[in-house]
Write a structure and sequence with these properties.
The structure holds two protein chains of two kinds.
Chain A (H helix, E strand, L loop, with lengths): L1 E5 L2 E3 L22 E3 L1 H17 L2 E7 L5 H10 L3 E5 L9 H14 L4 E5 L9 H9 L3 E11 L2 E7 L5 E7 L2 E5 L11 H6 L7 E2 L1 H4 L13 E7 L8 E2 L4 H14 L5
Parallel strand pairs in A: 1-4, 1-6, 4-5, 5-11, 6-10, 7-10
Antiparallel strand pairs in A: 2-3, 7-8, 8-9
Helix pairs in contact in A: 3-4
Chain B lengths: L3 E4 L2 E2 L2 E2 L2 H12 L6 E6 L2 H9 L6 E6 L8 H11 L5 E5 L2 H14 L2 E6 L1 E6 L2 E8 L4 E8 L4 E5 L15 E4 L11 E7 L13 E5 L9 H11 L2 E4 L1 H5 L20 E5 L5 H4 L7 E6 L6 H4 L2 E4 L2 H20 L1
Helix pairs in contact in B: 3-4, 5-9
Classes of the chains: A alpha/beta, B alpha/beta.
């Protein structure tokens, strides 16, 4: 099975306090810790496991810039067969549809049975996979938390409300967006990354894909972020500023007062 | 003004609470707007759901088709493409179904798509100004959306407060004839109901709930010791289940359990909206998190900026001391 995984490099929200920059038009990006988007990492692991069961190749692709090579190399170290960076000045300022358009043109230059994305990235939009599927006219399923290959089709489990799961039969080729927790992504150490240090990662641009500059980038974007802001706290917590011991005593008192001590 | 539609999720003949929230969102786009409900489904329950909306919508567009008896987003999308007028605005609840349906629908309609919207400023000609959150809710963003060829907008559940008094005497319009044969290359098979697990966190009045801040599986015992001292249960947020540190049955949130405790101790939990959606009944919420920017502090009653690995053992000691004294 030929599998394509679409990934993105994002500021790691579990490692960073995200703050606005002085101009308020972006977050403060100096000294941010970046990593592969968490859900995308699960998607790559799932692709590798499917390949190892049924054979084939895993290609990892990102729409990004030079800095994003580090996450592609990390996915090569995990075991992806190849990685491609989609970069062009014309791609800058894309909205979700722009990203999906670039990926659609890349997909049509190759042959993939299965395309995976993470369910959502740092903007929480959960949109590119579904858009890509619609552009390709492939079936789509989101929030996927289990995949089995059966008779050239997939049996796909989706996460729905209350911890319930929705089981679907999905024909290939298809696009699936992968939910976190679907598997246990393998660990990649520095040694593994050094071993793939010399593997070439080709950069593919707009002309290689035959993309009209007007179809993507800021000019084509119908959805634009105009600024970032921190909303005024409507209520906000009463913050305790005592010593750890004082705070613990206060919490104990509050839990008791709220009827929480049996 | 562009016509505004609200996609209504329904089950067992009853419209979801999100229906009223979508009306509230439509009023933010245009205060004079009377949004049109649009529903897909099949059978007597479906007819009942359509009729039930007559008191809150002026028009209800009913799209009945046997293949829509189960809401398979692939089929619903095809049906909506055939029924919706060009350049409409469609509001969809941002839940597991909306995530499945909406991005692809926007492509098929050649409409703009904005996901997980929390607030809407009034429309300004052909553009709409919206508010979203990014980076796990740590910052918000204003987004401008060009609606000249329509828009599909996913609305965050709970973000828009329904107006109490709105009443209508709506009519149900049958639009089913526009939708004949539907087929998809994704077929619904069955729904598997979640297992109940060893501890029922929905039955506890105090929850010690742990998140990513617990850092590793070996540290879960710190929360268990506190819970034992308090006579409480340990619950958790999604990253803890993803990492296989606790069972899925302990997860609080839209994809886990809905809980109604008296006291909720959020320990190393950032406060993603999917997690908060599982906390009902307005419990007293105490948040402990290393990150002073964690969104949980926006909604907590009491907050402490501290490392849960240090704070929880201290609290456990205090509880044990208090209980020891009380026992004498």
């Amino acid at each position: 099975m030929e599998i394509l995984v679409c990934v993105r490099r994002v500021p790691d929200t579990s490692e960073n306090e995200i703050e606005l920059n002085a101009a308020g038009n972006d977050i403060e990006r100096d000294e941010l810790v970046y990593s592969i988007n968490e859900a995308d990492n699960y998607a790559v692991e799932e692709a590798l496991q499917i390949r190892d069961r049924v054979g084939g190749n895993v290609t990892v692709v990102t729409v990004g810039a030079e800095d994003d090579e580090e996450i592609l190399r990390r996915q090569l170290a995990m075991g992806a067969n190849q990685a491609v960076l989609l970069y062009d000045e014309a791609f800058i300022g894309c909205d979700g549809k722009g990203i999906a358009t670039i990926l659609k043109d890349f997909v049509q230059k190759g042959h993939y049975d299965l395309i995976l994305t993470g369910v959502q990235a740092d903007d929480g939009a959960a949109q590119v996979g579904g858009m890509l599927a619609a552009m390709l006219d492939y079936p789509f399923a989101s929030l996927v938390n289990a995949i089995t290959v059966e008779d050239g089709r997939l049996k796909v489990s989706r996460e729905i409300e209350g911890g319930n799961r929705e089981i679907n039969d999905v024909d290939l080729p298809c696009v699936l967006s992968i939910q976190t927790g679907i598997n246990e992504p393998r660990y990649v150490g520095m040694r593994g990354i050094r071993q793939v240090a010399s593997v070439p990662i080709p950069t593919v641009g707009a002309s290689d894909l035959g993309i009209d500059d007007d179809a993507v980038g800021e000019g084509a974007a119908k959805v634009k972020r105009t600024d970032y802001f921190v909303p005024a706290a409507s209520r906000g917590a009463e913050m305790l500023h005592g010593s750890r011991e004082e705070n613990a005593e206060k919490v104990l008192e509050l839990v008791g007062a709220k009827g929480g001590l049996k | 003004m562009t016509r505004i539609f609200a996609y209504i999720v329904h089950r067992g003949g009853v419209a979801d609470d999100s229906a009223a929230e979508l009306i509230a969102a439509a009023k933010k786009i245009d205060a004079t707007a009377s949004p049109t409900a649009i529903l897909t489904g099949w059978g007597p329950d479906f007819d009942a759901a359509c009729s039930s909306l007559r008191s809150s919508f002026g028009e209800i567009w009913k799209v009945a088709n046997q293949s829509l008896a189960y809401p398979n987003a692939e089929l619903v999308r095809q049906a909506l493409v055939r029924v919706l007028p060009p350049d409409s605005i469609l509001l969809v609840p941002h839940d597991h179904f909306g995530i499945d349906l909406a991005p692809g629908l926007s492509i098929k309609l050649n409409a703009a798509f904005v996901s997980d919207v929390l607030a809407i400023d009034a429309a300004d000609g052909n553009s709409l100004n919206l508010v979203r959150q990014e980076f796990g809710g740590q910052v918000s963003a204003h987004v401008r959306c060009d609606i000249s060829t329509g828009a599909v907008i996913n609305i965050r559940p709970g973000a828009f407060k329904p107006e109490a008094s709105a009443t209508a005497s709506g009519v149900v319009l049958d639009k089913s004839s526009a939708v004949s044969a539907l087929s998809a290359r994704r077929r619904y098979v069955e729904t598997i109901v979640a297992e109940s697990g060893d501890v029922d966190i929905t039955k506890h009045s105090v929850l010690v709930s742990i998140g990513r801040g617990i850092q590793e599986k070996e540290n879960v015992i710190i929360a268990e010791e506190l819970a034992e001292a308090l006579g409480a249960a340990v619950s958790c947020s999604r990253p803890v289940v993803d990492a296989k540190w606790m069972e899925k049955s302990r997860q609080v949130g839209s994809s886990g359990k809905t809980v109604r405790p008296k006291v909720y101790l959020a320990c190393g939990i950032s406060g993603a909206f999917q997690h908060l959606a599982g906390i009902k009944g307005n419990p007293f919420l105490i948040a402990i998190n290393k990150n002073p920017k964690a969104p949980i502090f926006q909604i907590a009653d009491v907050g402490i900026v501290d490392d849960v690995l240090e704070f929880l053992p201290e609290l456990t000691n205090k509880v044990r001391e208090a209980r020891g004294v009380a026992a004498k």
